[in-house]
Amino acid sequence: MRDxxxxxxxxxxxxxxxxxTVGARDVINxxxxxxxxxxxxxxxxxxxxxxxxxxxxCADGGTxxxxxxxxxxxxxxxxxxxxxxxxYTDLPRNDFSQLFRIVHGQTEIESRLGAIPDLYPMASAxxxxxxxxxxxxxxxxxxxxxxxxxxxxxxxxxxHVHMVGARGAVxxxxxxQGAKDWDSFLTNRAAELAPGGRLVLYxxxxxxxxxxxxxxxxxxxxxxxxxxxxxxxxDGTITEAEFAATNFPQVYRTVEEFAAPFRDDGSAVSRAGxxxxxxGTKVTRCPFAAAFxxxxxxxxxxxxxxxPTLRSWSEPxxxxxxxxxxxxxxIAAIVDRFYASYEDEVAANPEGHGMDYVHCWLIAAKAG
Amino acid sequence: MRDxxxxxxxxxxxxxxxxxTVGARDVINxxxxxxxxxxxxxxxxxxxxxxxxxxxxCADGGTxxxxxxxxxxxxxxxxxxxxxxxxYTDLPRNDFSQLFRIVHGQTEIESRLGAIPDLYPMASAxxxxxxxxxxxxxxxxxxxxxxxxxxxxxxxxxxHVHMVGARGAVxxxxxxQGAKDWDSFLTNRAAELAPGGRLVLYxxxxxxxxxxxxxxxxxxxxxxxxxxxxxxxxDGTITEAEFAATNFPQVYRTVEEFAAPFRDDGSAVSRAGxxxxxxGTKVTRCPFAAAFxxxxxxxxxxxxxxxPTLRSWSEPxxxxxxxxxxxxxxIAAIVDRFYASYEDEVAANPEGHGMDYVHCWLIAAKAG
Lengths: 368, 368
Prior knowledge:
CATH topology of chain A: Rossmann fold
CATH superfamily of chain A: Vaccinia Virus protein VP39
Oligomer: homodimer
Number of domains of chain A: 1
Shape of chain A: globular
Largest sheet of chain A: 8 strands, mixed
Mean pLDDT of chain A: 94
Helix content of chain A: 40-55%
């Protein structure tokens, strides 16, 4: 479910893969000390039952494999007497076979997990809006770039494709769905956590300066999506109803919204004993824009390399907006044309384009 | 990894699916009382940590979904106070997405698992030749039609494609590999099992009358495979080396061989505290042959319906025997021709053809 769907990239070979996922991977690798500290802070007994960690919204696991290798390798050395369960989670349609192939070292991506004794990798396809592991058994819940997916879209966004471009009642409806799903995410995690257990979450969101994914100063990615998709209405390719039905099932929450359930002592989250320990934001530069601006300066190449990574995670949303009566051929032609128009625009005028990541990260602890 | 690979069948629609898997499913459903009894015999405390069960070599889980719905639904009613973890296992290349879609009720196959509260379905891609879950945590290990897959083939079978047709030193080498892998399967399970935990295993094997899969009186399926594959050597389509390199990575063990580690007090299995409680054999009629003989009497239809189910699990072995220098087109043409020859043979002379299942089942317990 991560936006950096790596399966698609893997098909393009190792070099392409590493470019397209380097940003997401670096964000996760940089979180390794926080994840390690969240485990260390629990003063886990040297002997006892399994230590359980989850990686929620793992996609194919490629972007977190280095982090888990480091953190769980160190944990194994520190606590040789306790088994470790690493439970990857995503939705049923995720490519779990590719995940397991990466985890078990059957791809070109290096996995150190196989060298860690008494480590048990598993997967779950239970939504993070429900309980994934038995109550009181979770020591560390980790999630990167996944919690912005909401359980359902509350309504169509008539004049945009993403809630960041919605206004008034529509925006309120998405924010309300986002708040409801965030509460449910946290209360389910609170039930899963063992006493003293921790969450380390890197969420897509809106930072203190109003920045969010692909909107950090230059042309806003979601505005470009909306404008170019609407251009297909204007030239008669798609209908206004199809435009309206095209809605990313996502909510980008603000720092305030992420913190809200913790700041209300009467909330279900607070009553379940979950406390916010740290919260912050982080901007990570788009690796394609960085390569263009700092290195190759070739606008056509930038456009050619950048658009497929946008397409890899956004295409299902554009396809789902189109009328069910259209043939597969028709749908493919429309979507090809749409991304070609985005590529043309970037090639002609590359300045400021790019998909910088904006994360709101937080660490929370269950009362011990 | 089950021979009744249901993913292939699912693509052909519900009716085809149920015909192709009805035998395997019925075997598993008939085992439900044994599985329930293996749990009941443990007198599990009404409160406590998770009850963990595994389904090893689950493929897409379609053939065991009814059994688990019944057994775990009843267990939930009997022990409302304990979470249940159902861990499906197979190798990384298994279609775990299809498994999860079936488990979570996203296919046409009915799943009752979603209605069982406090049940946590998961998956592991750790081979059953290694530990799948932490030591001492497993209450019930179940496996149907999977343990005949060996961890490696010890040598080529020059004059056949399956060890059931091998002789002398070659047969001895396969039997030795089978014994080694069986020991490793059982000792890994012994380590996983909680005190009093049970195994319920339905293994493909050779029964007291020498019967095995597709060899219960009529033309022997593996002999037919070998003869028709060798006919492609004789007409120059494939080479003798390719024939020799075609080996099912399987060992069918006898009842004696299954029981041997238990009957030796000094074996690793016995020393690990694993005891054989019951052992037996069971023949299940081929549903395609039954439909032909009891119902439609149409030889061409029998051949047309029967061969794809053989193909679904045997094709990878025939493909892997072919030279790596052959093109995909060439390989597809050879394999198409091979299965067409089998279909022609059944259509022309259907008597006695069929893939009757022969299982050696056993129940074992870890010392309490």
